[in-house]
Amino acid sequence: MSWNHRVLWVEDDSGGGIYRIHEVYYAEDGRIEGWTAGPVEPLGESLSELREEIRYFLTALRRPVLEEVEEEGRCVLRPVEDSPEINEGHFFEVMDRASVALDYCYQFVGSHPVTRSNETLRALYDQAEDVLCRLYQEAAKLAFNEGDDRPEVSMG
Question: What is the rounded average pLDDT of the residues 108-112?
Answer without folding.
Answer: 95
